[in-house]
Amino acid sequence: MIKVSDTASKKIVEMMQEDGFNAANDYVRVGVKSGGCSGLSYELKFDKEVGENDKIFEDNNVRIAVEKKSFLYLAGTVLEFSGGLNGKGFVFNNPNANRTCGCGESFSL
Predict the structure, then answer these.
(1) Which of 49, 73, 79, 106 gives a 20 to 30 Å CA spacing to 97?
(2) CA distance 61 to 84
(3) Could you tell me which InterPro entries the record lists for this protein (predicted)?
(4) What does the angle CA 73 – CA 41 – CA 104 come to, to the nearest 5 degrees?
(5) How far apart are CA 101 and CA 25, in angstroms?
(6) Is the pTM of this model over 0.85?
């Protein structure tokens, strides 16, 4: 399962509305791809469709779609949002990552 913090949930719902998506019906697609300074990087986007290879979760009023292959790397992750003057934006707290880069956008196992 992937969890969503309260602050991340509020920001996601707000951003979905700005981009013409509906948090009650549409999804946040979370994924992993090769690349980044640590070997793997996170992907985050909005989606109206789910595929046959997707795992679907709902947490804190956010519907999440994750391709099964990416889920192996993301199980137990908490999506958070860090705002403010020094905020980074969305942050992945991934218990599977052995090493992360300084920006938090890539990781290795």
Answers:
(1) 49
(2) 23
(3) ATAP (IPR016092), ATAP_core_dom (IPR000361), Fe-S_cluster_asmbl/transfer (IPR050322), FeS_cluster_insertion_CS (IPR017870), HesB-like_dom_sf (IPR035903)
(4) 100
(5) 33
(6) no
Distance separating alpha carbons of residues 43 and 25, to the nearest angstrom: 20
DSSP-based three-state secondary structure for 61: coil
Which amino acid, 66? Answer: V
Give the strand pairing for 40-47 and 27-34.
antiparallel
The values of phi and psi at residue 76, to 5°, are: 90, 0
Structure tokens at 106: 């890539």
Instruction: Return all residues near 12 (Cβ < 8 A) that are at least 6 apart.
Output: 4, 23, 28, 62, 81
Q: Which phi and psi (to 5°) does residue 43 adopt? A: -120, 140
